[in-house]
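Q: My labmate handed me this sequence with no annotations at all. I'd like to see what the chain might look like in three dimensions before we decide whether it's worth expressing. Could you predict it?
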Amino acid sequence: MQLSKISVVYSGVDALPLLRHIILHDEKFSTYKLGLLRALCRAAEGSAGLAVKSEQAVSVPLGLIALNWLRLYLPLVKAHLPQSPTNLGGNEGLGFVRSAFCDLMERGMSGFDLRVAGRFSPEAGGVLHAALRDTIDTIIKMPIAHITYAGGERIFPVVKKKPGPAPTPFALNKKYLASFGEMGVPIDVWHAISHFSVWIEPAIVEQWKELMRVYAKRKGEAAVAHEAAMVAGMRWADPEKVYPDVRKIIRRLFEMRQRVCCVWSKRPLKSSVLDIDHCMPWAAWPCNDLWNLLPVHPDVNRKRKRDRLPSKDVLLEARGRIIEWWRTAYCADQPGTFANRFAEEARASLPGAIGTDGSFDLQDVFDAVVAQQQRLLHDQQVPEWDGI
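A: Here is what I predict for the chain of 388 residues:
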């Protein structure tokens, strides 16, 4: 993959007034409009590889929007936080909260479970399939129908498909998420969200919290009673959640007497002296994909790199060690659980990393990581780390 092919930058500034109006001033009878915008932000930020671009618009799988919606609403509904004036602490009035959604709550589904590349048993997959279908019905009937231009035209047109029964085996991959249909996003809106979501999403979150405070007040409850639940519920993901999987892999490598080194310093690691580093820092880009998790020495991770972005030169110097880590840790069991997950996550979060036929080369994945580093550096001005 040639990095020059993805170096063109579209600002998207023309769409910012439209987004500001929807977030702050558009009439709202529930949190649904904000939920749709935040689900779209998460798609543009973390799963841009699943979108299909044309000159005028971007097509996003409806299943991906619904999946993000479920991730956003599950903790809020579980905490009985009101999402509309008629939903004051209960589930009444929420169109997507049907039996399948309640079953997901009872099963203890978390945001980590509801992620691209997630796999489920036939029973759990059937429940999630039904919940996604119910959620899409609600999204189309409510926020999409009411987020319009001044003339009444829908900003986010939808092409809905009948997905049929839940597939077996059940995996949240691109083909499955696209089986529900597509949501169109104007190209300027997509570019605005892609480049400015670091500011747009916090505005959505704060407005969402404010609506929940208003709904709670109407019930006569003190807003402060909900603050802790709101803070926890609005979190997208837990950066620590995925570490057990990676540490399990490392333990296996140690048991096989394979050498594991710090990708940044080349220092050999021990099971008792080892950290897992987010290559692209979590503070700038909340991504728990396997490709983004690297073994490092604690001194390097905690005292030197910290939450900074590795410079392009640092990445290129570590290229061989990073690719070798991916190959040894995740792709050695090809085709296997971690190999499939690695490929699906890279396909979603790193545009251009995986071929249209599903084939991939680790060098292409690495090139896509360098391209993502350039995007974060340009869009967010994340402080760089120049290495040891």
